[in-house]
Amino acid sequence: MQAYVSRQSWAQQNLNKGLQQLQEAVSGLDQSRDRDTLLQDHYNTFSMPLRFPYQPHEEDQISEVSAQCEMRCEIEIRFKQIQTRLKTVTEETEEAGKSMLTAKSSLLEGIGDNDLESSVGFGLSQVGSNENLTVKPSVARRRANLLEVENVYFTKVKDYLVGSSLVSKLQAKHDLLKEAVEKAEASSGNQPSRFSGKSLCIRKNHSSGNLFHNHKLFSGDMLSFIKASGQQIPNIVESCIRFINLYGLHHEGIFRVPGSQMEVNGLRDAFERGEDPLSERRYDLDSVAGVLKLYFRCLENPLFSLDSTSQLLECCQIKDDAERAAHLKAVVSSYPEPVIVVMRYLFAFLH
């Protein structure tokens, strides 16, 4: 009996100790702090992608990048879109936060001492009692309601966390674009204008009458086209990349899901005529990506010349990173300068 009593006392002490630890853990819960701790402990998983800083190429004299009028219009449009979306997402997140707090209060009210006592009392009471027959459905009903409230609470917590993360990301983009727009306005305000101080942004639509060349765009030689047209970046590459940057960075299946063949053919014919169809209206993103892929796929001489294929494959066998980079640089440096300019533009976008 003494051994039994001592074991009972020891078990009681352990229960009290465990209950005290649970109470301390519950009282110390802080959703924001715990989330920040989780993000810090797994920084590489949840961190934002690195920014792509501009670095001048060898012998470049450019020390600062500034947006021209056409790009400024697009930045302002993108800024307004993000501003509108940020407002909507913030309102939805705040609403989810209120619903989460309401569900939390309902959940805590449901987990009361009365429910625990009734369930324990029901388990210890006599099975044949008439009173238990009325208690059993009531307890089961309360448990079902409690489970439903719990599911609602977890759903609202998920919505709130996802919304908060999206708000943070949109807010960062909003602040950066706001700073860029303000700088552009300040720089344009310092320059004299012929239009009574009002800045006008005109989107150019290259027509075939302005292109004095007979070189094919698709299934042609890109180097000859660049030299004949005077375009550093072929208009189709610049227009498609600009369009995808504006509308497609969060589009699922980009460059993987094929677009409408009819729309792709229409865009190809318009670009072949020297027009810029993407400046006038919006198209399906998969079709725009398909046109960009089609252009590079159909080039008479591919972006990476056939002569250098074996050299590039040999570079992949080099294990040392610095040595491999040096060999790659030597191979790419042998390409014509206009091709390297297009490569830098394309891979900056792909990065």
UniProtKB/TrEMBL annotation:
SMART domains xref list: RhoGAP (SM00324)
UniProt keyword annotations, A-Z: Coiled coil
Domain of life: Eukaryota
Residues of the Rho-GAP domain: 220-351
InterPro entries associated with the record: AH/BAR_dom_sf, Rho_GTPase_activation_prot, RhoGAP_dom, SLIT-ROBO_RhoGAP
SUPFAM superfamilies: GTPase activation domain, GAP
Protein name in the entry: Rho-GAP domain-containing protein
